[in-house]
Specification:
Length: 138
């Protein structure tokens, strides 16, 4: 039986004048995923549509079974230690927290909670970060 999962990431998108490596260097964080504009969305199918923008993303490093609040606090810890660097990115590019909740029916677990506290609210006001959540029920 599958356990519910929470995939929480911080994303920097629409990067035009910086490389993924530069963002990695300036933040001190290795991305979990990068997307390169102009490459096929499906590398196994060269005829697939092309990506229309560059993207760099990181996660908390805690895994998808850690609860939302623990993952968010870990991401906030990372961002707050390099707030001025992230503020520059948030001013120049599209930045967001992207959260996907994968909920499996009849697995004995309740739907994961998503609570955005004062610490989160303070940071997103300072850095102008959006929040996107997707719910998948299997």
């Amino acid at each position: 039986m599958k356990k519910n999962e929470i995939d929480l990431r911080f994303i920097i998108a629409d990067i035009e004048d910086n490389s993924h490596d530069a963002i990695t260097f300036l933040t001190g964080v290795n991305p979990i995923y990068v997307r390169i504009k102009g490459l096929p969305r499906n590398p196994k199918n060269p005829a697939s549509p092309l990506w229309t923008n560059n993207l760099w993303s990181m996660d908390s490093g805690l895994g998808k079974h850690a609860d939302f609040e623990t993952q968010m606090n870990a991401l906030l810890d990372i961002i707050e230690t390099k707030k001025e660097v992230f503020k520059t990115f948030c001013t120049e590019y599209h930045c967001e927290f992207a959260c996907a909740l994968m909920v499996y029916r009849d697995n004995g677990e309740s739907t994961p909670s998503v609570h955005l506290n004062k610490r989160y609210n303070k940071l997103i006001k300072e850095l102008d970060i959006e929040f996107d959540i997707d719910l998948y029920v299997f």
